[in-house]
Amino acid sequence: MSVIEPRKVVDAAATLILGKRSRLELSLTCLIAGGHLLIEDVPGTGKTTLAHVLARLLGLEFRRVQFTSDLLPADILGVSVFERETGGFHFHPGPVFTQILLADEVNRATPRTQSALLEAMEEHQVSVEGATRALPDPFFVIATQNPASQIGTYPLPESQLDRFMMRITMGYPDPAAERALLTGRDRRSLLADLQPVADATTLVAWRAQAACVHVADALIDYVQALIAHTRDSGVYRLGLSPRAGLALLAAARAHALLNARGHALPEDVQAVLPAVALHRLPAVEHPGSHDEAARQLLQAVTLPA
Amino acid sequence: MIGWRKRSPRVTTPATPLTPSQVAWLMAVAACALLPHASHLPAWLDAVAILLFTWRIAQWKLHWPGAGRIVKLLVVVACCIGVTLSFGRLFGREPGVALLTLLLVLKLHELRSARDGHTIVLLGYFMLLAAFLYSQTPAMAAALAVSMSVITAALIALNGPPATVRALLRQAGLMLAQALPFMLVLFVLFPRVPGPLWGLPADAYGASSGLSDSMAPGSISQLSLSGEIAFRARFDGPVPEARERYWRGPVLTDFDGRTWRQGESARRIGDTLPHAPGGTAVAYEVTLEPHNKNWLFALETLSALPSGMRMSDDWQLLAGEVVRSRRRDRFESIPEARPGHEEWSGYLDAARRLPADGNARARGLAVALRAQAGSDAGTVAAVLQMFRRKAFVYTLTPPLLGDDGIDAFLFDTRRGFCEHYAGAFVFLMRAAGIPARVVTGYQGGERNEIDDYIVVRQSDAHAWAEVWLPDEGWRRVDPTAAILPSRVEHGLAGMAAGEPVPFIARGDAGWLRSLRQRWEAANNGWNQWVLSYDQDKQRELLHRLGMRSPDWRLLTAWMAGLCALFAVALTAWAMRRGIARDPLARAWTGIHHALRPLGLGREDWEGPMDYAARVARTRPDLAKDVAQACRLYADARYGTSPPLQAARELRACARALRRKRTPAAS
To answer: In what helix (H) or strand (E) does residue B584 lie, and over which residues does it extend?
Structure first.
């Protein structure tokens, strides 16, 4: 049992990112479940700050890559450079060799560069110039992207989206939070003062604990019912993949741990479901808002007794 | 079928041994099936059964060696011989039940597979059925219903997954309860045929008490000690007075100096009434308990002979066959009629006949009285006068009489029961030259206020006399009434103070009497509507239910229709139940059903904690209870706490919520 509860991280982050507690919980859940996080929203809603804050509080090594249309794979993975002194090639690791990689505005890069991230995210290793190099553990990618409608974006393909365990949106702060933001201290300086409450070891311990969270048959029934609904109801062009099912269960476990419970509840599944499922579910008809789509999916499936 | 068997290769399924709990169930089956028979089996067989049973338990619990094949064979042979010796034969009801008892207990010693278990279960069911051959009381039926649940539970245990005793008994009870409507429909509507469907073995009818075809001093007083019910009667109109209720039975004409017997006249039987009485008739129905004789009891004097019955020359009513099962007949009688003017002189001679010698003093007295009175009617009055005047005592415990019993009674002891008085009276009449005969039967009967039946018991057995007077015909004379009028008013309860009265006939102890009447009314209801539910009763019931002319086609249609209806209803119920068969789910449903009237039902997709939070927002007063219930459910369903206990606590929560929701709602 780790001394620090994961909830502490959320509490600390909430002092800096105002009025976004549920987003913070989801982000941390995603990290505890060992998944990559995609944050999608218009610029200036605190996406990057969220990534910064998480890395800082978890005491993890943090690199940031600003994706642009001319970014090359080598800019991310690293490159071998000829060194005159040794007379040989020496590999200079790219920014991907870190514990948390913030891929800012990931959809501004070309698909070629985007897919360079693919292997890294899935395999936790990179292959450069014939050599396979392991990435540190833990390794997370927190990617931010602007909504697809913005100019100069290359939307992430479905295969790439499926690698992200969760996609969350930030949304505008509510008036009270916005006022606190406007009247409060500068976020940058606050971020600089932020002290880590955990470290990599703690995070690994949490991850192990999350894997031990009890999942009852009844809950598996529910998860299966949800997956079956996405595949059979005809509401979605494509149902949830088995990987999505595993991700849903892992996220539900992590969410239960975050709420200090030894077993996962349907509420855990429901809490993570929109974030885990919606970016993998291209709807036949445009569902309207994000929340509306989430509500539709949730209320369509009866909780098995 | 046989051909198919021959072609197919012989398949032997490996016998799965019975589990210890299944063995225990089978022992319970044997115990349940044999207990109802213990009382009527020979004592030695009971002992053998208990011994074998105990041995089996010892083998099971103390790991004693089991019975070998040789031992079992020896026991079977020995018991077959024992049964043959005890009953005189090896087949029939009694020896059959005895053999089955033995086989059932022995089968416990060879429980190798489920097949043996099924044999025991089927034998058990059969033994329950056989128990009805001995007793058909409501108490027995209730006891057998319990046994049936146990045997059914054992059958479930043999075939189903392991379960607790309670669960198995519950399921068995449920299955039997589901069978109940079908049973009722078939019982009520199945077309009834008169008489039993199949022949029963000759010894299927045990001994029963009742009047016999002879009377000696002591025979009726012996019978009066019995509280057993002889028959019940229900009158259509007003019930005649107790002193008018003489239920005529065997008529005794021949006397050998000690015993009165049926005479020649009892064997001259006709199909018509030998007399044609006039007057107002009362109609009534008699439900006669089996007494293994062929006579019936009806009020004096019958005004019409029901079909299928016959009557002897001395007006004794006879059934076509021996009364071996309870029967119900309708009669019409005229209590005050005194027919019989034109009696055949040959019979009158027989009714004057006395043994050649003996009882000289009585003969002398009769002659003297006749001379003194001057007429037959006067003589009758004089004798009754004598009984009344000369300190005769009516008692259940008369002293023993010697050879000249009539003399001893009339002149020495002067203590006697009705048979003494009737016998002595008829003797005196005959000695005086007046034709007279003894009539036995029952007198009075008690009215049960609960169901308005007149209950006539063996203790109401009575003997009275009839004398033939030339201008009057046969006249009933009851000497007992002359001595103790209250005897014919109130039965044995009217006995003189200080005389012992059988417990059953006592008039005091009101609550006891009312309790007894209730019990007997219940028994009578059972007899009338269950055991004696025959064609007539069926027609009566269906008529009451509005079926004017039920024939078998209509009955079959109704039967099929109702059975189908029940089947559909049960299926619907089972399907509805099936959705929430799991006790935890059922209990959880109970929680939101308790809250639904408040508009706080759970949504299908709503998780327990979200639900608790939503209820708490609307009804903070219920928040605590709902939160507890939801936590209980969540912990048991999604966590690791035991579901059955949670279900129990949830049910308590639901009750608490139902109690609490009302005051706040109003």
So the answer is: helix B583-595
Cβ contact (<8 Å) for A302 and B605?
yes
Task: Compute the distance between CA of residue B6 and CA of residue B458 in angstroms, rounded to an integer.
Answer: 65
Answer yes or no: do A300 and B608 touch at CB < 8 A: no
> Per the CB < 8 Å rule, is B638 touching A263?
yes
A277, A231 Cβ separation under 8 angstroms = no
Query: Which amino acid would we find at residue B554?
Result: L
Query: In this predicted structure, what is the pLDDT of residue B143?
Result: 92
Asked whether the beta carbons of B421 and B488 are under 8 A apart, the reply is no
Query: What's the whole-number mean pLDDT along residues B165-169?
Result: 87
Q: With 60 as the cut, is the pLDDT of residue B507 above it? A: no
User: Going by C-beta distance under 8 Å and a sequence separation of 6 or more, which residues neighbour residue B666?
Assistant: none
Contacts of B202 (CB under 8 A, 6+ apart): B92
Pick the CATH number of A212-300 from 1.20.120.1810, 3.40.50.11930, 1.10.8.80, 2.10.70.10: 1.10.8.80
Q: Find all residues with CB under 8 Å of B626, minimum gap 6, and list them.
A: B591, B595, B611, B612, B615, B616, B619, B657
- The architecture in CATH of the region A7-201 reads 3-Layer(aba) Sandwich (3.40)
Q: Where in chain A is the domain with CATH 1.10.8.80?
A: 212-300
Chain B positions in Cβ-Cβ contact with residue A301 (cut-off 8 Å): 605
Q: What is the DSSP string of B50-89?
A: HHHHHHHHHHHHS-PPPPPHHHHHHHHHHHHHHHHHHHSS
Distance CA A252, CA A270 (A): 8
Number of cross-chain residue pairs from A and B with Cβ atoms under 8 Å apart: 49
Which whole number is the average pLDDT over B504-530? 74
Question: Percentage of chain B surpassing pLDDT 90?
Answer: 10
In chain B, where are the structural domains located? 20-189, 214-510, 582-660
Strand partners, B456: B231
- Encode pLDDT of B558-602 as tens digits: 889 999 999 999 888 877 765 556 788 888 888 888 888 888 888
Distance CA A42, CA B88 (A): 107
Active-site residue list of B: 418, 462, 478
Q: Is B476 helix (H, G, I), strand (E, B) or coil?
A: strand
d(CA A272, CA A159) in angstroms, rounded, equals: 20
Q: Is the dihedral of CA A48, A52, A54, A55 positive or negative?
A: positive
Two structure tokens written together for B408: 């001893």
Cα–Cα distance for residue pair B318/B265, rounded to 1 Å: 13
**Shortest Cα–Cα distance, B571 to chain A (Å):** 21
> Using CA atoms in the order B514, B515, B518, B524, what is the torsion angle rounded to 10 degrees?
-110
Range B509-534 average pLDDT: 77
Q: What is the pLDDT of residue B121?
A: 94
Tokens of B58: 């010892």
Higher pLDDT pick, B208 / A154: A154
DSSP string of A106-171? GGGS-HHHHHHHHHHHHHSEEEETTEEEEPPSS-EEEEEE--TTSTT--PPPHHHHHHEEEEEE--
Collect all residues with Cβ–Cβ distance below 8 Å to A42 and sequence separation of at least 6: A146, A147, A150
In chain A, residues under CATH classification 3.40.50.300 are: 7-201
The confidence band for B666, taking pLDDT boundaries of 50, 70 and 90, is very low
Q: What's the rounded mean pLDDT across residues A189-205?
A: 85
Give A-chain residues touching B638 at CB under 8 angstroms.
214-216, 218-219, 263-266
Q: Which of B370, B453, B444, B361 is nearest to B404 (CA)?
A: B361
Q: For chain A, how many helices (H) and strands (E)?
A: 13, 9
